[in-house]
Amino acid sequence: MAVEHRTPEAETPALLVRDVSHAFGENRALSDVSLEIPRGRFVVLLGLNGAGKSTLFSLITRLYDNVTGEIRIFGADIRRRATAALQRLGVVFQSRTLDLDLTLHQNLLYHCALHGISGADARARTAQALATVGLADRAEEKVRNLSGGQSRRLEIARSLLHRPSLLLLDEPTVGLDIGSRESVVKIVRSLVEKEGLAVLWATHLFDEVLPTDLVVLLHKGRVLFTGSVPELLAHTETQTVSDAFRKMTGTAAGTGELAA
Ligand SMILES: Nc1ncnc2c1ncn2[C@@H]1O[C@H](COP(=O)(O)OP(=O)(O)OP(=O)(O)O)[C@@H](O)[C@H]1O
């Protein structure tokens, strides 16, 4: 008789992706992608434009249906237990999705309503989320008045309202000036350190990777490496993440959309 082995709840990864592929017609955007995000870790999904990062996010968030492989959020299969899985997930997509003519407060209250959160609870969560991202004093202004970095921070606040345990961010710092980039990175890293959130941070900017992060290297729809930064450097016999990336992908220095 087959014995079923169950992973204890505390050991279940925040996100498990196993053997997931996706194609747009003839264009294979993802091929047998597997990765894991342990609880409470900051994981960088590193890949150039077109690597498949946004496609993977669309599958994890169920914008697209994954027809191959398996995706689990804290153990819940996103197809069979979609509600349980998505309740634990917060997302900041690459394109902006705020209502410019509503105030910060109204944008967040609207999102609370979508999650069935209302009244005093919604107001308390909104105030707390705005404070977390340093925008408490801007609550009654229209979003139209915010800078790019402030808008991003508001989107992060919005993603926290239903108190997720796993946060996905797709190229959150693209187009921001250096000061705004730093503040966005700092806020998200602090959520990992202080609140124990697990984060999947998609980027093509190597200087956003810290030595203590885990890295998933995605190139042309395939995962070429998963592990810690020291493991990546040892594996490639290089000194920097950008050199390691170039070596693994065969991308020559000075070409491609590399930064830092
Ligand atoms: N809706 C779509 N229809 C057809 N092809 C698509 C679609 N979305 C993505 N692709 C293709 O799938 C591949 C992966 O794209 P994807 O957007 O996931 O990459 P990415 O790593 O997020 O890059 P970027 O940061 O430029 O969005 C690319 O070849 C892209 O052209």
**How many distinct domains?**
2
Please report the first level of CATH classification, the CATH class of the largest domain.
Alpha Beta
Instruction: Give me the oligomer status.
Output: single chain
CATH topology name of the largest domain, in short, is Rossmann fold
Distinct helical segment count = 8
Coarse morphology: globular
- N-end to C-end Cα span: 55 Å
The share of residues in extended strands comes to 15-25%
Q: What is the mean predicted local confidence, pLDDT? A: 92
CATH architecture of the largest domain: 3-Layer(aba) Sandwich
- Structural class from helices and strands? alpha/beta
Low-pLDDT segments, ≥5 res: 253-260
The helix content, as a percent range, equals 25-40%
Q: What is the CATH superfamily label of the largest domain? A: P-loop containing nucleotide triphosphate hydrolases
Q: Give me the side-by-side strand order of the main sheet.
A: 6-7-8-3-9-10
Order of helices and strands: EEEHEEHEHHHEHEEEHH
Total count of strands: 10
Which kinds of small molecule does this entry bind, naming each only once?
adenosine-5'-triphosphate
Radius of gyration: 19 Å
**The biggest beta sheet, please?**
6 strands, mixed
GO molecular function, one term: ATP binding
Protein name: ABC transporter, ATP-binding protein
InterPro entries: AAA+_ATPase (IPR003593), ABC_transporter-like_ATP-bd (IPR003439), ABC_transporter-like_CS (IPR017871), ABC_transprt_ATP-bd_su_PQQ (IPR022467), P-loop_NTPase (IPR027417)
Family: Belongs to the ABC transporter superfamily.
